[in-house]
Specification:
Elements (H helix, E strand, L loop, with lengths): L3 H17 L9 H4 L1 E10 L2 H6 L6 E7 L5 E9 L2 E11 L5 E4 L4 E8 L4 E8 L6 E8 L6 H10 L10 E3 L12 E5 L1
Parallel strand pairs: 4-10
Antiparallel strand pairs: 1-2, 1-8, 1-9, 2-3, 3-4, 4-5, 5-6, 6-7, 7-8
C-alpha cells in the first residue's frame, strides 16, 4: 500500500495538469467572436448548476469587445420562471482567447470557434468553497448538429468532467424580448 501512494499522487498530479492546460482557438479574433450566441449545451461540476440543469432551457449570451480589448458578456437565463440577466466583464490576458474576471475569480477560455456557427468555451470559477469547471457549447442559432454535439461530448472527460454533468438545453425564445429581463449581479 505505501508503494501505491506515490504513483497515485503522480497520476492525480498528471490529471490535474492535463485539465489545467486548456487549448485556445489558434489566431483568435475577438471582433469576429462578438455578437449574439445561444447557450445550447453545458457541462459543469458546479453544485448549483447540477441541481438546476434538468430544468434549464437555452439562453442567450451577447458578447462585445471593449475598446481596451476586454470581453463583456451578458447572459439571459430563464430561472425560477423569470428572465434574469447576468453581466460579466472579462479582462483580456496575454493570450488571445483567454480572459479573466478578477472580482468573480473566473477564467474564460475560447477553446474553439468557427465564429459563424459554434464556439466551445471553458470556464473556471475559483471563488466560493470549491472551484468549479464548466464547458459551454454556444451556437449562433438554436440548432445543434449531432456531429457538433458529439464533438462537445468528447471534450467533457478531457476537462475533468463526467457526462452526467451535461445538460443539452432545449430551445427557448422566452427571454428574447429585452424588456422581460430582471438584472442580477453576476
Amino acid at each position: 500500500m505505501p508503494a501505491l501512494l506515490p504513483s497515485l499522487a503522480l497520476t492525480l498530479l498528471c490529471l490535474l495538469q492535463a485539465v489545467a492546460e486548456v487549448p485556445l482557438q489558434p489566431n483568435f479574433n475577438a471582433e469576429k467572436f462578438a455578437g449574439m450566441w445561444r447557450v445550447t449545451a453545458v457541462a459543469s461540476n458546479c453544485p448549483v448548476f447540477l441541481k438546476m440543469k434538468d430544468d434549464m432551457k437555452s439562453s442567450t449570451a451577447t458578447i462585445s469587445i471593449t475598446s481596451e480589448g476586454d470581453l463583456a458578456m451578458t447572459l439571459v437565463w430563464l430561472l425560477m420562471g423569470k428572465c434574469q440577466k447576468f453581466e460579466v466583464l472579462f479582462q483580456h490576458s496575454k493570450e488571445a482567447g483567454h480572459y479573466l474576471a478578477a472580482q468573480e475569480q473566473k477564467e474564460l477560455h475560447v477553446m474553439e470557434t468557427d465564429y459563424s456557427h459554434y464556439a466551445i468555451l471553458h470556464e473556471v470559477q475559483r471563488g466560493g468553497q470549491e472551484p468549479s469547471t464548466g464547458l459551454q457549447l454556444l451556437t449562433r442559432d438554436q440548432n445543434v448538429s449531432p456531429q457538433l454535439l458529439q464533438k462537445f461530448k468528447e471534450l467533457i472527460p478531457s476537462m475533468g468532467l463526467a457526462e452526467e454533468m451535461l445538460a443539452v438545453l432545449p430551445a427557448s425564445d422566452q427571454c428574447m424580448a429585452e424588456g422581460s429581463w430582471v438584472s442580477l449581479p453576476a
